[in-house]
């Protein structure tokens, strides 16, 4: 394939482009970290793993994983930016691009698409030594071109980050309304409603004492057999690994090309379905985005009895009060497990239908905006990922772009 960089891109080894600061890093074991808790992030191979009372670095640096399974699986970025004051253990290399030679953001983008398997040693414990890090071969564009490539990609990243912040604000608004109405009992017109005694304590007059099952059913996933997974299939399996609190499930690497005969119908998932984790970090709640998903065991679908209560059910299971109650009924030592049957029987104050309808009218626009922002963010990520290898290899020429060239590219994709 011919790259359009007119011979200006030069073969290099990474060691010629970077400064390495590994000698400054200091590992702390779990006991030491427990004794030194503080406000400064403590980084490992794949990101922040703790916080401590002091820092080793102050500024902006690129961290590259030195060891760990992620070097091969690439489930997380192997290179990422650390900013401000922070501590790093001995599982991540600390580098910066040499001044006027390499741009840090370009280096992170390059690592995102680079095949570095030939430089990784160890089968049981993959490792990228400092010597091998320096030996990594690449074709490097001139520094000004690196800056422009980084600028284009940063325009996407900035919009993605902005959308992510807006989504978090909108969800917090929905959660705040839920807390006011259904936890603090300060719903519209509450001044005219007295609190009465109940088995759950004081609740507003007109409310009833019921159970979670009076609001939503917990439908467990199917026990798919791992030997039926394929590399390229029509169906995507939502497993416990895909369920993260407050997130959307958009993809899965567990694929099937045929459906088991005895799989229940509810294991067909639709966009907007609410999921709950039943093992490990129990109580994580997320939303399905897209189609073609199937529900695996150890994950439950929260199915509201009334379709208009979807926002209420989501906020109910995302609330700290419910999270604490779920932790109290979970069992297991090495790994917590949550029973859908027991969860469904948890006592719960039942608001009047009119109040639930009013809540739905209030928060539906918030969730609609969240979905729209997520759709835009998803499109931005996909476009960025398509552009990334073309930019990094010079297939897309950016030399003639001015410093603001990234913005029009982004606007065209949203």
Write out key terms for the chains shown.
alpha+beta, six-stranded mixed beta sheet, single chain
Rg value: 25 Å
Oligomer: single chain
- Count of separate DSSP helical elements: 10
Mean pLDDT: 91
Strand order of the largest sheet: 2-7-5-6-3-4
What is the terminal-to-terminal distance? 30 Å
Give the biggest beta sheet: 6 strands, mixed
Strand content: 15-25%
The gross shape turns out to be: elongated
Helix share bin: 25-40%
SS elements, strand count: 21
The chain-level structural class is: alpha+beta
Spans of 5+ residues with little confidence (pLDDT < 50)?
403-414
Write up what this structure looks like.
- With 414 residues, this protein is α+β, with helices and mostly antiparallel strands.
- The protein contains 10 helices and 21 strands.
- It has helices at 30-35, 70-73, 104-113, 130-135, 143-183, 310-318, 320-329, 340-344, 353-392, 406-411, and strands at residues 10-13, 18-20, 40-44, 47-52, 57-65, 79-88, 92-97, 137-140, 195-196, 203-204, 208-211, 216-220, 235-238, 248-249, 255-256, 268-269, 274-277, 285-288, 293-295, 299-304, 347-350.
- The strands form 6 sheets. It has a 6-stranded mixed beta sheet. The protein has a 5-stranded mixed beta sheet with strand order 12-20-17-18-14. A 4-stranded mixed beta sheet has the order 15-13-19-16, with no helix packed on it.
- A hairpin with a 6-residue loop joins strand 9 (195-196) and strand 10 (203-204).
- Helix 5 (143-183) packs antiparallel against helix 9 (353-392).
- The longest helix has 41 residues, at 143-183.
- It is elongated and about 75 Å long.
- Residues 403-414 have low confidence and may be disordered.
